[in-house]
Write a structure and sequence with these properties.
The protein is α+β, with helices and mostly antiparallel strands. It has 2 domains: about 80 residues, no CATH class; about 230 residues, NADH Oxidase (3-Layer(aba) Sandwich). The protein contains 12 helices and 14 strands. The protein is globular, with a radius of gyration of 26 Å.
């Protein structure tokens, strides 16, 4: 009895059929006769002593024992990502000593330095200077009270946010608040990253902030890109609350926000330094870090926050004018004045109606 390795998928690329074993990180180009034989074995034929079968078994594409299949709760795409990005060696030498590890790391850094992409993104459009961040705005709350008060709110009343508050919120979340990377400069090392209030893999900070100014005193409604020199680039004034809600798969919780931010990731930064797809994990974590920083800063400034990962990816990417490949949208955060509620009256009305229907149903049983 033959068993097909459950951890493989096939690609048709450049005239070749590629079998990718994502569990063991192996790839094989199959000749047509191997593809034909694989289909036969998959349809129930028995393994024989042919060289083809021996090759398929040696490559672990075909197995002689029943495989142990993970009890995985999501679809195969998520399983490929989860397993396919595990156990990736970061050194050429197995179990290197300290000096070997350092030398290999430095050699790798030197080999890629001339390929470094621009760290700072600049979009075309009218540039608007932001006021200097006002750190005194954070004096009203302690760290403890901020952590305890942070809450995902789904009810906002349309209150206005002053421009200096938005400026402070953007700078503390997305700005280079530390200035130059001093310990690199002091030791004569090249700066290949950015320091912000949140950590980032390799200091790359792939996140970009696209600000949807809905109700900001001192800033016209529109979509803006936040620059690392603490300026905004106007991309379009064509923005409405209804359009935002459409992009967010009709999540009406965004109604009444003062400001919303689509957080994108520039994957080209990660591609440059980290060549394996495991780095996609780091990018997702980076976006999570800045979203949490945004929420804590908004809370400390006296605003409620809301966040979501549910939106129409391709439409949002197109709306922001990004290609969806080298840069793509990963998250949305918003802030405004609200009632600090986890759900609104409409939800409660529907819950009440459902309870009433269930009670009537039980009374007839």
């Amino acid at each position: 009895m033959a068993y097909i390795n459950p951890y493989i998928f096939m690609l048709f690329r450049n005239g070749e059929v590629i079998v990718w074993d994502y569990f063991n990180h192996q790839q094989f180009a199959l000749e047509p006769r191997y593809v034909k034989r694989l289909l036969e074995l998959n349809n129930g034929e028995r393994v024989d002593d042919s060289s083809i079968d021996k090759d398929l078994i040696e490559a672990n594409i075909v197995q002689l024992e029943p495989p142990i299949i993970d009890d995985w709760g999501w679809d195969v795409l998520s399983h490929i990502f989860h397993k396919g990005t595990q156990n990736i060696p970061i050194t050429k030498v197995e179990n290197p000593d300290y000096d070997t590890w350092v030398e290999e790391y430095l050699e790798y850094c030197e080999s890629i330095i001339n390929e470094q992409p621009d760290l700072f993104t600049k979009r075309q459009g009218h540039i608007i200077d932001l006021p200097d961040p006002d750190y005194s705005l954070f004096n009203n709350k302690t760290l403890l009270s901020t952590l305890k008060d942070r809450k995902t709110s789904r009810v906002f009343n349309g209150g206005v946010m002053p421009l200096n508050t938005l400026s402070t919120l953007l700078y503390m979340t997305f700005g280079p608040i530390h200035g130059d990377w001093s310990d690199l400069n002091e030791n004569g090392l090249l700066t290949t990253g950015i320091r912000k209030s949140s950590p980032s893999g390799g200091g790359l900070h792939p996140e970009e902030a696209y600000v949807l100014a809905l109700r900001v005193d001192g800033l016209n409604p529109g979509v803006y890109h936040y620059r690392m020199d603490h300026k905004l680039t106007l991309l379009t004034e064509e923005i409405s609350e209804d359009r935002l809600i459409e992009l967010l798969y009709h999540q009406y919780y965004a109604r009444g926000l003062s400001v919303g931010i689509f957080i994108t990731a520039r994957f080209d930064k990660a591609w440059w330094k980290y060549r394996h797809s495991r780095a996609y994990r780091n990018v997702l974590l980076d976006i999570g870090h800045v979203s949490q920083t945004f929420q804590l800063c908004a809370t400390s400034l006296g605003y409620q926050s809301w966040l979501t990962g549910a939106f129409h990816d391709r439409e949002v990417d197109s709306f922001l004018g990004i290609d969806g490949v080298s840069e793509s949208t990963l998250f949305f955060v918003g802030a405004g004045i609200g009632e600090n509620k986890s759900f609104d009256e409409k939800i409660l009305e529907h819950v009440s109606l459902r309870d009433s229907k269930n009670q009537r149903k039980r009374s007839f049983e």
